[in-house]
Amino acid sequence: MPRPNHWWNAVIVDDEWRMIDACLASSSNPKRALYSSLSGPSADLWWFLARPTEICWTHVPEHHDQQHIVPPVAYDTLLNLPCACPAYFKNGLELVDFNTSLTRIEDLEMVHIMFNVPSDVEIAAEVEARAFTKDNDGDLFESGDIVKKKALAQAEWFNGVKRYTVKALLPGDEGQGVLKVYAGKRGLMQSIKDIPHPLAFTLPIIHTGENPPYEFVTRHPTPHAQRHDIYVVQPQCQQLALNNTFVFAIRQHPSSLSGSAQSALTPASNPGSTSPVPFARPSSAMSVNASSASGSSASGTVAGKKPAKLAIQTPGGKILRLMRKEDRKGISVGSRTPDEEVSDGGTWETIIKCSEKGIWRGLVLADRTARWCVFAEWTCVG
Residues near 364 by Cβ (< 8 Å), separated by ≥ 6? Predict the structure, then answer.
């Protein structure tokens, strides 16, 4: 049992237990920035009258009866929960099949977590690690700098519920780092340069073995194309090899179940088909068969709504349309295997031989104007 290092109050309001942490809510607390996104002299009201089942993610009482949870939860379970901030509960996030083994990876494995969100919530994620440098004797020591690396966060829909999949790696051979997941209202992110959302939860990453350089595909927010959630199935790697043929596969789904901009989050049924073990890094999805890209437009509907038009733009500016994949039985495209859960959306794909060096872009047509919005970028290198 860990030593106690913090104090808070438990009160009864309307015959229900509630927790008050006036210390953490105060702007004078030097550690408030670790648990709150507020700045300035205002108090963080979430820490007043918090539910016992929510505050237990960060506050573990010394005595079981002070949890005020029936039945009490074991210490090991509480200490292995992610460190959840108020944004986690305010935005209604729900972890799916979480297991602590997912954050302990070896060699070419990667962190792979999933969680459900309401339809009007968007996610951003990054990994932070302490940088190391060598002294004159060749010994490693912490330089005091923080190294950051973007994680791949994409949304899909399963059984009418929006689900985010986050894939993350450490920046280098630091051995350990922290995965930070940010959550907020959909449409606020304008670029990948800045994350406007508050921190929702964090997870420790522990890596053993070699960690060769690897970058995920760059995903851009599309504030002018909000009607559909887009998931890049493949290639999920950043770099593409020159004069090689790749299958570009994109999955899309309407961003809301109804005509309104917001729909309620319903509990998702997961039959346990997702394995709680680390996943291998996504391959480059290179195909052995070369084929020219088709220029026909996307057709068909997804969940009764007109799908968004998708395309790939070459470094030279040529636009290659993606076609709907008719055969969705099994969904064996990319990293998904036939026995895994099938998403609600449709898949659009094309086969392209990358014969040009430079930036290849994924495009989606804007909601209200006849212009393309960039949602993904790959780099073709020789």
Answer: 222, 225, 228, 230, 308, 309, 310, 311, 372, 373, 375
